[in-house]
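Fold it.
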Amino acid sequence: MKPYFLCALHPSRPLSLRGTSEGDVGWVDWNERKVVSHWSTGQKGLSAVAMEPSTQRCATLGTGLVKVWEGQRELGAYPIEGTNLAFAGGLLWVGRPGSLVGLDPTTGEVRHELLEEKFSNLSLFAVHESTLAWSGMGAADVLVVDASTGTIKNRVESVGEIFALAIHPDGQRLAASLTGSGNTVMHAVQIWKLESGLHERKFSVPFQAMSLAISPDGCWVVTGDSMGAQLWDYARGGPERRYAMRETAAVEGLGRIERPRAGLVTAVRFDGEQLITDGQELAVWDLTGGERLWALEVTGV
């Protein structure tokens, strides 16, 4: 069985959609602590998965082909190249090098296409209702799109290279993880007013964050990196708690010691009193105490 590295977390239900580059996909319910559904998409080179929050539909992106599913039933297959997927405003958005395409998920009809030559790498997305934030990995700008009309509402500019995006639960603020290129620190999280693009706050982080989320009450930010996840105080930008897998290893002269275990976290979500981290492994953590409550150390389903 193959490891699962692609993932998407449902914004309100306890579900993770996980996939492999070989084309296998599985739904995991972390409340039930198990894989509840799995199937083969028949797509080689699977590179992205996405789920629609308001329906049972999901989408998978393989080499030159997007498929839309309801459960394990294929609803449509549409020939298009891309790097990432997101559902927003009733459409399926496909990020491509230099462009963003909004497809009707039922027919595959192209409803909108936006061009931005600066976004030549992997597309990055954050969604809040019909608002879609779009950037490219390593780019310095974010385009804020009204996904229901396909129009650009605003452009937000940073002083660093962007590697992850999140929209505040109030829909009024945008957060991004930055690295290098003009930062006074190597890695940082920056937050802007979404409508105006005005800077609100910025704080340094020790590692390059590949995912981030803001808590529903707006009090906390969590970043995911190559060694786990870090909780931050939203108001002051101070570190609060670390969530990381651990392992024991034999060290000459010291016997067996416990140490952090590397594990890339590419998706994070607050879930009540729990924190969900996903990527190489799906894990559920006690938000306050930092204890790992459950982990699906998937090598395949």
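The two ends are 7 Å apart (CA to CA).
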